[in-house]
Amino acid sequence: MYNGRNGKPFYMSVVKAFLFDLDGTIVDTHRANFLAYEKSIKNITNTTVDDSLSDLIRAGESSTSFLPKVIPGISDDKMREINSEKQRIYPEHLHESVLNEFLSTFLSQMFRHYTTVLVTTAKKNNALSVLRHHKLEGYFTHMIFGDDVENMKPSPDAYLRALEITGLQKNEVLAFEDSEKGIEAANAAGINVIHVRTFES
């Protein structure tokens, strides 16, 4: 038995699907993301960013939210250029990412017996690069990316989409999230969440 975020008892016998966030949950991609954005911003705008960029990325903010904070007055066109450049060079930095060995082992065991869904608001190309690098792409029944929803976490859109494509009820799924925004998104969809606080078993 687990205790959900809302404090109500949650029994594993009810679970038919596991929903997994990616960045910070299955794989710690923070440094890879930071380095790729740092380099992309420098390449496109010749701007050197400070540590505030690292903090904003770790907080789970989307690029459309954090780029104007680190580059005041940036245009939408420049943000698109930076994001395109980031996607191009991101794979070069994936050696800096760290696999959550405990959770990835759990995923590798559960995917044969349960529906497993990746629920990430990362862009599809970036997320697939991470999955391929860590050999995780074959473990998911369904994948939901940031490209698939209108609103990013903490909006519940991605989790509501997961319920839609699995055909399951909110009490039949269990989510794994590391960030407050992700937890808020799952809760808003009525889904119980296990808060991933560390990569240690």
Structural features, described:
- With 201 residues, the chain is α/β, with parallel strands linked by helices.
- The protein has two domains: 2-29 and 97-195, Rossmann fold, CATH 3.40.50.1000; 30-95, DNA polymerase, domain 1.
- It is built from eight helices and nine strands.
- The strands form three sheets. It has a five-stranded parallel β-sheet with strand order 7-6-3-8-9, with helices on one face.
- Strand 8 (173-177), helix 8 and strand 9 (192-195) form a beta-alpha-beta unit.
- The longest helix has 16 residues, at 30-45.
Task: State the gist of this model.
The protein has 201 residues and is of the alpha/beta class.
Write the layout of secondary structure elements.
Blueprint: E1 2-3, E2 9-10, E3 17-20, E4 27-28, H1 30-45, H2 52-58, H3 63-70, H4 76-89, E5 98-99, H5 101-110, E6 115-119, H6 124-133, E7 142-144, H7 157-166, E8 173-177, H8 180-188, E9 192-195
Parallel strand pairs: 3-6, 3-8, 6-7, 8-9
Antiparallel strand pairs: 1-2, 4-5
Helix pairs in contact: 1-2, 1-4, 2-3
